[in-house]
Amino acid sequence: QVRVVESGGGLVQAGDSLRLSCAASGRTALTADIGWFRQAEGKERKALAHITLRGSSGGVESVKGRFALSRDNEKNTVYLQMDSLKPEHTAVYYCAVDDNYDGTYDYWGQGTQVIVSS
């Protein structure tokens, strides 16, 4: 059984940094691709970035240079480092597991709320 737990969200001020964590457990999660998504209130959930077992990462254009992914395979944890946060980054951030390596995320965490005040 795959389990995904996000943490690290909170209330920060514009310009601050925040690091979110995604702990994934379960046999297939240990080698899976991990993705980060966010959903602002009243809006659709959007993909942010993903990282493979070997640490290759990719992200959407809007987060390049501002957000960075890293992965600690010994801890089965993926980190999303977010710098220079803006109020428009306020959202619930989700982590998900793609253990079929096909871009389909079958296992999701409960999300962690990030609020950026101006």
Summarize the structure.
The chain is an all-beta fold. It has strands spanning 3-7, 10-13, 18-25, 33-39, 46-51, 57-59, 67-72, 77-82, 91-98, 107-108, 112-117. It contains no helices and 11 strands.
Account of the protein in words:
The radius of gyration is 13 Å and the shape is globular. It has strands at residues 3-7, 10-13, 18-25, 33-39, 46-51, 57-59, 67-72, 77-82, 91-98, 107-108, 112-117. 30% of the residues are buried. The model has no long low-confidence stretch (mean pLDDT 92). A hairpin with an 8-residue loop joins strand 9 and strand 10. It is mainly beta and 118 residues long. Strands 2, 4, 5, 6, 9, 10 and 11 form a seven-stranded mixed β-sheet that branches. The protein has no helices and eleven strands.
What is the tally of beta strands?
11
| SSE order, one letter for each helix or strand | EEEEEEEEEEE
Helix percent reads: under 10%
Instruction: Give the end-to-end Cα distance, rounded to a whole number of Å.
Output: 41 Å
As residue ranges, the low-confidence spans are none
The coarse silhouette is globular
Instruction: Return Rg in Å.
Output: 13 Å
Which structural class should the secondary elements be placed in?
mainly beta
* Helical stretch tally: 0
Average pLDDT, to the nearest integer? Answer: 92
Instruction: Please outline the major beta sheet.
Output: 7 strands, mixed
Strand content: over 45%
